[in-house]
Design goal:
By secondary structure, this protein is of the alpha/beta class. It has three domains: about 30-120, TATA-Binding Protein; about 145-315, P-loop containing nucleotide triphosphate hydrolases (Rossmann fold), CATH 3.40.50; about 320-365, no CATH class. The protein is about 35% helix and about 20% strand. The protein contains twelve helices and 13 strands. A seven-stranded mixed beta sheet has the order 8-7-10-11-12-9-13. Strands 1, 2, 3, 4, 5 and 6 form a six-stranded antiparallel beta sheet that branches. It is globular and about 65 Å long. The N and C termini lie far apart (about 50 Å). About 25% of the residues are buried.
Length: about 375
């Protein structure tokens, strides 16, 4: 009995078409002893599934169902992760290999990369490894996204030096942590997405300049910029979460909305011990950065050790824009916006979407 079948039996789950697909996939992997794993650090853009089948059929037997597709080849299997591009109905395809000791993954990887070169997505790709805690262990799901985030300096007028200069200083600094403090709607998530895009593009340029001196792992960074992400309280308290980040090729760790976890260790906060060790402990995080966000109004209750010089680059206090700042940003975006709120506070979402945010109250009585 496979692990999946055992899990279904133990938890009394109802078997679905998806489960049968995975049963067959697991059986092939187990029968051929495909105990190793490797993924191609690229996304490939195609018109439709038929084009995917045509490309990959020359490599082996394509197994195609309504819920999944993989290719059986000698001593290996290629699993395809397909996502849809809503803009032009194209498809983004990510390839993962399961293989055994008789499969030369280095040679095959170069071969597949060359064969699929014309379909390689040239846009900035971010791979977000979203981690969460199950009852027994930390699990994760990879989300691949074409990062087209555009942000103007006028969105954050309190960053006087400009966004690009600020982010570059963060990248160049010896400090590991950037803390964003501010109420919801002040653009923390949007700024993080732009930082991801900026870092990915900068690393790509550096790698190109290095030419023959490129390290193997850096050669792949320019293809897909990998980020670890979590909002799970249980995940934060597990050593495995931080160990995975240190060992992985993820260059950025994003911890969003962790208000409770930033309190002092004297309050019994075990998470802070792990974070401090990961951000500036015995293990050096070469070129790795951590971004923390909180909706707290200020950082007064945050453990002082986190904010000390040498560990934290900056505590960026995000805020709503006032009427004048909102007018400047709206003009930059070429949008007309009715600026007449009584409190004079405007979120970035309001200005970008040209509509005033409203709050609602709900009653079930």
């Amino acid at each position: 009995m496979s692990k999946l079948q055992h899990m279904i039996q133990r938890t009394n789950l109802r078997e679905s078409v998806g489960h049968y697909f995975l049963f067959n996939l697991e059986k092939y992997i187990e029968d051929n002893n495909l105990k190793y794993y490797k993924d191609l650090k690229s996304l490939y853009k195609v018109k439709n599934l038929e084009e995917v089948q045509k490309i990959l059929s020359k490599f082996g037997k394509v197994v195609y169902t309504a819920i999944g597709m993989y290719v059986e080849i000698e001593n290996a299997i290629i699993l395809m992760d397909v996502s849809v591009d809503d803009e032009d109905s194209g498809l983004y395809v990510h390839l993962e290999f399961f293989f055994n000791e008789y499969f030369d993954i280095k040679v095959k990887e170069e071969y597949f990369t060359k064969e699929l070169e014309e379909f390689e997505c040239k846009e900035t790709i971010t791979r977000v490894l979203w981690q969460f805690k199950t009852k027994e262990y930390i699990d994760s799901v990879s989300i691949y996204e074409v990062n087209t985030t555009e942000v103007h300096d006028e969105s954050y007028p309190y960053i006087k030096e400009g966004l690009d200069n600020y982010i570059q200083r963060f990248m160049d600094s010896d400090e590991t942590v950037l803390v964003m403090v501010g109420p919801a709607g002040t653009g923390k998530t949007k700024l993080i997405k732009y930082i991801m895009k900026y870092m990915a593009n900068k690393i790509e340029k550096v790698v190109k300049l290095m030419n023959d001196n490129i390290l193997a792992d850096d050669r792949f960074i320019r293809k897909i910029f990998s980020v670890a992400y979590s909002t799970s309280q249980e995940t934060y308290n597990d050593d495995e979460f931080f160990i995975d980040f240190v060992k992985s090729d993820n260059k950025l760790l994003i911890l969003e909305d962790i208000d409770y976890n930033l309190r002092a260790r004297t309050d019994g906060n075990t998470f802070m011990h792990k974070l401090l060790n990961a951000s500036d402990g015995i293990v050096e995080l070469k070129r790795k950065k951590i971004i923390i966000t909180t909706n707290l109004e200020n950082e007064q209750k945050t453990d002082k050790a986190l904010l000390r010089p040498g560990r934290t680059f900056d505590v960026l206090k995000t805020r709503h824009l006032n009427k004048e700042e909102a007018q400047i940003l709206a003009a930059k975006l070429g949008k007309e916006f009715n600026l007449n709120k009584a409190d004079g506070k405007y979120s970035l979402a309001e200005i970008y979407n040209c509509r005033e945010e409203k709050s609602y109250t709900m009653s079930f009585y």
